[in-house]
Every structure is written in C-alpha cells, then in structure tokens.
C-alpha cells in the first residue's frame, strides 16, 4: 500500500498547489458563476483533468491488484471533491487561518481514503 499512499499524497500536494496558483480565477468564477460562460468552461477543465488522471491511476492500480475493485470514476470524483473542499475551506471559510494545515489534511483524510481502497 506504500506506493499508493505515496502517489496519492503527491497528487494532493500537486493539485493543492495548482488550485493555489489559480486561486483568484477560481474564486472569481465561483462569485460570477453563470455570468461568463467562457470562464465557467475554463474553470471546469481544472477538476475534470484531475479526475481523469485519478481515474486512470485507480484503473491501473485495480489491474495491478493493488486496490480492491471499485468504480474508478466514483473514487476519482470523491477524491477530487475532497481535495476541492479542502481548498474552499482554506480560502473561503477560514481564509488566513491555518487551523488545518495541508500536512494534517493529508495525514488524516488521505490516509482514511486509502484505507477505504484496501
């Protein structure tokens, strides 16, 4: 399970870094949802690409028998939603506060997610 743990934790850090890099555009798109279709379409690609990467990863791990047989798309969307929720919590609900640092999020939530795959 070490390989999966390492991979998923790396994917979380990379996704959080990407969201942080695009934070102003993401937050603007949430505020202005539906007013600028081009912006809505552009923002939609961020989680969709992440979900596609995760789905492929889960499919690969299932074929290698590293995780139990689950629906890869469902697992990918759950993982992406969990990560986006963390991003929103940090930027909108508790901006400027570091009540729940990334390391805690990874250690507690990602480990729990990985356990569900065993």
Structural features, described:
The protein is globular. Helix content is 80%, strand content 0%. It has a single domain, classed as Tetracycline Repressor, domain 2 (Orthogonal Bundle), CATH 1.10.357. The protein contains five helices and no strands. By secondary structure, the chain is mostly helical. The chain has helices at 2-21, 23-31, 37-63, 72-93, 102-117.
CATH architecture field: Orthogonal Bundle
**Strand share of the residues?**
under 5%
CATH topology: Tetracycline Repressor, domain 2
Q: How would a crystallographer describe the biggest sheet?
A: none
* Count of individual domains: 1
Number of strands: 0
Terminal-residue CA separation? 8 Å
Gross geometry: globular
Name the assembly state.
single chain
Provide the low-confidence segments as ranges.
none
Helix-and-strand structural type = mainly alpha
CATH hierarchy class name? Mainly Alpha
The number of helical runs is 5
Cα-atom radius of gyration:
15 Å
How would you spell out the order of helices and strands? Answer: HHHHH
What do the pLDDT scores average to? Answer: 86
Structure summary:
The chain has 118 residues and is mainly alpha-helical.
List keywords for this structure.
mainly alpha
Topology, pairings included?
Blueprint: H1 2-21, H2 23-31, H3 37-63, H4 72-93, H5 102-117
